[in-house]
Amino acid sequence: MTVTIKGRGIVPGHAEGEALVSHETISGWGGIDPATGTVIERRHPLFGVCFTGKVLVFPGAKGSSGWSGFFQSTRLYGTAPLAMVIGKLSTKSALGAVVTRVPTLSELDADPLDVVRTGDWVVVDADRGLLTVGEQR
Question: What are the residue boundaries of the Phosphomevalonate dehydratase small subunit-like domain, all occurrences included (predicted)?
């Protein structure tokens, strides 16, 4: 069974892959290691988990304006997520998505954290503003 929800494309493009879901905001500066694409914030539920090659689904950014720079570094290192689905868009997360240059959706008709589970196969069509969620592969 698949579910499709409508959202707003923030960065255009199309990507599909396995979802990695965080129910907590992610800190860029000090919260991720851009060289490895790994969450390094010790108290974060995804501590030690790599988001490289995954569709990162998360509620939003936390921390300083350095957030976008750290996510841009993941693009430069080749460790960026395939795409991002952001529950609540902020200037930090929007700029981070733009400089990371991965398809990004936000402002969805349904809370993506209620719809997507880690391991689900998702299709991010930011050109059309659609998120399609399939069952785990």
Answer: 26-104
- Scanning 36-106, the segments in alpha helix (DSSP H) are 67-77, 91-100
Rounded to two decimals, the pTM is 0.94
Residue 136: is its pLDDT beyond 70? Answer: no
Among this protein's residues, is 64 annotated catalytic? yes
Give the whole-angstrom CA distance, residue 17 versus residue 91.
Answer: 26
Can you give the residue range of the structural domain that contains 113?
Answer: 3-136
- In the chain, pLDDT over 70 holds for what percent of residues? 99
- Please provide residue 74's backbone torsions phi and psi, each rounded to the nearest 5 degrees: -65, -35
Q: Domain holding 18: CATH number?
A: 3.50.30.10
